[in-house]
Amino acid sequence: MRRLGWPLLVLALLFGWLQYRLWFSEGSWGEVTSLQNQVAHQKRDNQGLQERNNALAAEVEDLKSGEEAVEERARSELGMIKPGEKFYRVVEAPTAPAPVTEETATPQAEQGR
C-alpha cells in the first residue's frame, strides 16, 4: 500500500493542476466561451454594416447611372419642380386649444380671481 501512495499523490496533484488551468488560468473554459460570444456579436454587427454598405453602394450606382433617382432626390429633399408644373402645398388649420374648465384650471389662474 505504501508503494501506491506517492504515485497516487502525484497523479492527484497533476489532476488538480490541470483542473485549475482548465477553469481559472489564461485560456480557460470561461474565457473561451466569452471570446466566442464576442466573436458572434461582432459577426452580427459586421453583417448589419455589410447590408448597409450594400444598400449605399446600390444607391450610389443608381445615382450615377440614372436621372430618375436624381430627380426623385431633388423633388423630395430640395423641393424642386419641373418647368411648367404646378406645386400645391396643403396646410392643415391648427387645432383649437381645449377649453379651460374648473377641473383643468391651474392653481395660478385661481389665485388671480
Walk me through the structure.
This protein starts with a helix and ends with a helix. 67% of the residues lie in helices and 0% in strands. Helix 2 crosses helix 3. The radius of gyration is 37 Å and the shape is elongated. The chain has helices at residues 2-23, 29-65, 67-78, 107-111. The chain is built from four helices and no strands. By secondary structure, it is mostly helical.
Topology:
Layout lengths: L1 H22 L5 H37 L1 H12 L28 H5 L2
Helix pairs in contact: 2-3
Provide a quick synopsis of the model:
The chain is mainly α. It is 67% helix and 0% strand.
Which structural traits does this protein have?
single chain, 4 helices, 113 residues, 0% strand, mainly alpha
Largest sheet: none
The percentage helix is 55-70%
Q: State the end-to-end distance.
A: 105 Å
Kindly provide the radius of gyration, computed on alpha-carbon positions and rounded to a whole number of angstroms.
37 Å
Oligomer type = single chain
